[in-house]
């Protein structure tokens, strides 16, 4: 049987089982194992086992349960509430100021924990009612929280970046360093969009009346809310970039910071520890199956000769290397609308990354573009995770249509960010080259 026919059957089988609604991880792993058996025989299983064994021995893998546990603990402390009060006092007197403050809080949350849902749920519970009560346009508020929540997978520490590194062999530390400036860029672009739009349409996000604005002593006092979050950020991100710790050691320091926050806010209890531990075990177990599927898929894809076939197809796209990269971005963008980020990672990275390297592009730079696309996937219909996190905490008067429509201008802002990083790769590569 020709390589073309085997490749067509392989991807056709994946598509059929996915349409039937089976879990993506088990579809990828199961179909890959079956095809490996019929193309290479039983000896092929040793190849998968050897690849998985090398990954299981990776010290970076320990960071995943630690970062997940840190996020689970921080989710239950009072950090978000105090941060919002501080932003309310400092930014409330500006048109769109509460929305900008919410975005800054989301960026801080992203720099403390490596998942997306924590900031969305926290800001949807605390910031959303406050802004709606003060006359903010509901769609602007929804889009703002949705967008800021997605930065949890871009601004390090990021669990998705750790998975990208494990699948591709790229340094976790370099990925973390590469995510800092793009994350700040997207925050600045989004804040600028809100400021410009509120300047021309002040009714969308009115400033607080003068009698509700805080005095300078109140503002200075409120800054205490930033001390603990900044301490955690320095412990985690600062120690990695400074070369003091590895990402895994920094994750352990982050857990210590999260537990310290729980003590300070008097939230520490056996119930909190039990719930956070159980959720961490569940997520970590799922991630282990994801890694098995990734290695099985990669082994099957390469062993049947599909990699060379696909490289030939994609490099023949007219327009040269940049046309290939743009095509990849478009494919990933649309996949992100219907699949979860880890699934897209499993399907596309074994296919795309060899081509990216062959064309001379930096895999760290490509990884940042990939993660931003995954972030957009979190906020875009029909299956963006943040959409459903948000729906779970909004008032009944806000419909799913409101949430869907709210993301449109913010997605366009994110696309502008991707374009800037493509035109100026140094935004993503400067810090990795400086510190590593």
TrEMBL record:
Cell compartment(s), UniProt: Cell inner membrane
Its biological purpose: Part of the tripartite ATP-independent periplasmic (TRAP) transport system.
Keywords: Cell inner membrane, Cell membrane, Membrane, Transmembrane, Transmembrane helix, Transport
Classification lineage: Bacteria, Pseudomonadati, Pseudomonadota, Gammaproteobacteria, Oceanospirillales
Family, similarity comment: Belongs to the TRAP transporter large permease family.
Recorded topology in the membrane: Multi-pass membrane protein
Organism: Alloalcanivorax gelatiniphagus
Keyword Repeat: no
Domain TRAP C4-dicarboxylate transport system permease DctM subunit, chain residue ranges per copy: 11-427
Transmembrane segment boundaries: 7-40, 52-74, 107-128, 140-164, 176-200, 221-244, 250-268, 280-302, 322-352, 364-383, 403-424
Protein name: TRAP transporter large permease protein
Subunit structure: The complex comprises the extracytoplasmic solute receptor protein and the two transmembrane proteins.
